[in-house]
Records
---
Amino acid sequence: MKKAIIFGITGQDGSHLTDLLLEKDYEVIGVTRRVSVDTTSRISTLLENKNLKLESGDITDAHSVINILKNHQDAAEVYNLAAQSHVAVSFKQPALTWDITGKGCLNILQAMVDLDMKKSRFYQASSSEMYGKNYDVEVGMTSESKYQDEDTKFIPQSPYAIAKCAAHYMTRLYREGYGLHTSAGILFNHEGPRRGENFVTRKITKWIGDYIKWCNTKGIMPEDSIACGTEEELYVAGRTSRDQDLQFPKLRLGNLDAYRDWGYAGDYCEAMWMMLQQDQPDDYVICTGETHTVREFLQIAFSSVGLNKWDKFVTVDPEFYRPAEVDYLRGDCSKAKEKLGWNPKHSFEDLVKMMVMSDLS
Ligand code: NAP
Ligand code: G4F
C-alpha cells in the first residue's frame, strides 16, 4: 500500500485529494493544525476510514514538520497544499502569509533533504496568481488572444503571490540542486461546493442559496423583491421597505471586471496526483483555457434560479477592492494534456450550476 502525506488536508483541495487517494488504496496521513474550532468538516465522512490518519502539526513550525516526516519517511508522495490562500487577506496579514505560504514549503523541502527522502515525491501547490499582471499574446489571422503557460514570466501582484513564487522557485531548486523528485502544479482558480465561503464564486452561490431559502420562509417570490433602504443600507425586500423583517442584505462584492479561468477542484486534484506518477518531476499549468468575468459568473448563477436581473441584488463595495488586482487569467495547459493526458471534465456553466444547486440544498 502506498503512503501519502497531505499538508492542508482540511482545505477544499485537501479533501478532494483525500477522496481520490483513498479510492486508489493509499494510506493517507493528513496534517491538521490545532485551532479552537473543528476544521475537519470537509473530510468528516472519511474520518472513520482506517486508511486515513491525522497528525497534528503546523507548516510554519519546522520542528513539527520534521517530526511528522521522520515518522513517515516511507511516504511515496508528499503534497503541500497548506497555505494562507486568500489573496485579499494576504494584504492585511503579509508576514503571516509569508510564513505559511512561502516559508512553510521550504520547511518541508529542507526536512526531506535532512531525512534523505530521495524516494519520496513532492507536490507544491503553485498558483496562476504568480503571473500577476503578466500574460503572453498569441496572434492569429484575425484576432489576438492573451494566455499564460509554463513559460510566461511571473510578475506577482500580492503578498500571497510573492510567497507562492518563492515556494515555486524553492521547489525547483530542491529538484535541481538536491535531486529531490519535486513537481509544481501552476493551478488556475478551481472551485466547487467545498470552496471557502469568502472566495468570490462561493460567496455568490452561498448568497443565492441563503436568499432563496429566506424568500421561501417569508413567502416572497425571489424575483418580486425590490431594492430599498438608503444607499448605505442596501437591502432587498419583499413588498415593503419599512418592515425590517422583510429585508435581506444585498450581496456586497468588489471588482466585477476581473477575468478568471475557473475550473472544478475535483478535476484539478486528479492532475496533482498525475504529476507525481511521472518518472521525471516537472512543472505544469492546470486550467480550462476559458476565461470569464465575475459579471458572467453572476449572470449564470442568478439566471440558474430564474433571476435574470442579478444587478438588482448586488452592490459594489470598495471594501472588497484590493490594493493591486490581477485583471486577466486564462491558462494554456497543452503541456499537461500532452504529457499527463489530463483534461478538465467540467465546463464553466456546469461548475456554476453545480455550486448553486449545492447551496440551495
Ligand atoms: P484552502 O481551502 O484555503 O486550504 C488551505 C489549507 O491549508 C487548509 O487545510 C488549512 O488548514 C491549511 N493551513 C493553513 N495554514 C496552515 C499552517 N500554518 N499549517 C498547516 N496547515 C495550514 O485552499 P485550497 O483552495 O484547498 O487550495 C489548496 C492549495 O492550492 C493552497 O496552497 C492554495 O494556495 C493553492 N491554490 C489554490 C487554488 C484555488 O483556486 N483553489 C489555485 C491555485 C493554488 P485549516 O483548515 O486549519 O485552515
Ligand atoms: O475568488 P477570489 O478571492 O480568488 P483569487 O484572488 O483569484 O485567488 C484564488 O485563486 C488563485 C489562483 O489564481 C489562488 F492561488 C488563490 O489561493 C485563490 O484560491 O477572487 C477572484 C476575483 C478577484 O479579481 C477579486 O478581486 O474576484 C474579485 N472579487 C470581487 N468581489 C472578489 C469579491 N473576491 C472576493 N474574494 N470577494 C469579493 O467580494
---
Amino acid sequence: MSFDRSIKIAPSILSADFANFGQEIQAIEAQGADWVHIDVMDGHFVPNLTFGPMAVKAFRPHVKTVMDVHLMIAPVDPYIDAYADAGTDVLTAHIEAGPHIHRTLQAIRAAGMKAGVALNPGTPAEAVAHLLDLTDLICVMTVNPGFGGQKFIDMTSKIRGLRSMIGDRPVHIEIDGGVDPSTAPLVAEAGADVLVAGSAVFKGGSVNDPDVYGANIRNIRDAANGVWA
Ligand code: DX5
Ligand code: ZN
C-alpha cells in the first residue's frame, strides 16, 4: 500500500447482498472501487450486529485492492490478532471504544496492519492530537455509527482542523456516512481523501447489473474531484 492523497472510493459492503459477499466484492472492484470497506458491529458499541473475523477472513480472497476494516466494537484489543490473521490491510478502531486508544494503535501496527482511528460526530479533532504519529488513517464519522443510509452530518470544520494538524504526515482522512455526489465535494475540499459510501454505491445495482455500481462510483469520484457532468 503506497500513500497518496488522491480521492479513493471505498464502498461499504454493509449495503451489499449479505447472501452474496464474494460476488458483490468482485463486482464493486471491477467497477472501479479503490478500497473495500467492511463494517464490523458488535451490538454493544453500536446498536447493530454484522459479522466477525471469520467472515472477514472469508472475504479476503475476493478483495484484490485494500481491505479496510472498520471496527465498531468494544473492547478492541482482544480481537486485533484475529483481524490480522484475516488479512486486514487497514484496521480502524474508535477512540470512544475504550480508555487506551494509544495502546490499541500500537498493537494494530505491531500486528502488521495500518492503524486507523475513528471519531464519532461528537468527538473533537483535538482528541487525536497526540496520536498523529501512531496512525495511518483518521476516520471522520459523518453519521452516528451503526446503520447505512443515514443523513450526512456536516463535519467540514473538523476535517479542516485535522488536515492542518496532519501536515506532511502520511495520514489519510477517511469520511464515513452519508457520502454521495452532493456531499463528496464538501469533504474532499476540506481535505478528505478516502470516501466510504454504502447506499450511494449499491443503490439501483446488483451483481447482475453491476454497471450501475460503476456509474455510482464514478459520480461520487467526479463530484469529489470537482468534475461536473
Ligand atoms: C455506518 C458505517 C458506514 C455505512 C455508511 O456505521 O460505518 O460505513 O455503511 O453507509 P452510507 O454510505 O449508506 O451512509
Ligand atoms: Zn464504516
